Amino acid sequence: MRLRLFALGGLLLVTGCANVKPWERSALADYTMRGDRDPLGDAQNEHIWFSREAASGGRGVGGGGCGCN
Amino acid sequence: MSRIRQTVLMVSALALGLSAVQAGQIKVGDVFPNLTQFQLEGQLPQDLKGKVVLVDFWASWCGPCKSSFPELEKLYERYASRGLVIVGINEDTKSVEMADFLKKNPVSFTVVRDAGQRLVAAANVASMPTSFIIDQAGQVRAVHNGFHGEITVKQYTQEIEELLPAQHAQR
What we know:
The complex is a heterodimer. By secondary structure, chain A is mainly alpha-helical. Chain A has two helices and no strands. The radius of gyration of chain A is 19 Å and the shape is elongated. The mean pLDDT of chain A is about 80. Chain B is built from five helices and five strands; from the N terminus they run αβαβαβαββα. Chain B has helices at about 5-20, 65-80, 95-105, 120-125, 150-165; strands spanning about 50-60, 85-90, 110-115, 130-135, 140-145. A five-stranded mixed β-sheet of chain B has the order 3-2-1-4-5, with helices on one face. In chain B, helix 3 (about 95-105) links the parallel strand 2 (about 85-90) and strand 3. At the A-B interface, helix 1 of A face helix 1 and helix 2 of B.
């Protein structure tokens, strides 16, 4: 019984993964969803990371996630 | 059968059931659904029977859709007289977004809005835009996922030329 409850709980967790269809991605495609929408903020973060961790770059992925093409 | 095995089977069956709900996209050879059955907003062309139809699913927020519109318009201007019909199916949730887009990207082919997103769900398109080229018998002859500039235009042209009746030499 406990095992079944555990399995059912697991299934409920699985339903937490939403499958957003391509035609439902209008909000995801919005400009405000872009990771690189604030160039000044990005430059400041880059400076901080470089100064503190000697880390640089790693911002190669662009786009808002609309999945277009 | 042990209780553990029973539970594993039950969970697997449920998971399989969930995945089966995902129907596939309309593919080449399928008969395209009748557009009149989906309560689309706007005026559909009177008679699509016996015509070569390009159905294009698009939305104002989709970048490649914007690039595709001038090319679709050129195709329409070139082939409308030979019987090509283009129907743009808009998937915006607000009609004002579609209107704004069309103001900036005017076209002369038919554009209707799938306000309830019923048609797109039935077609289950894999990306935006997605277009289908449908022959005179209503059968899907080509599916284009996305718009890839000249490559897609070349494919459209070839497929449409193959389906349209040969043009008589003009004197």
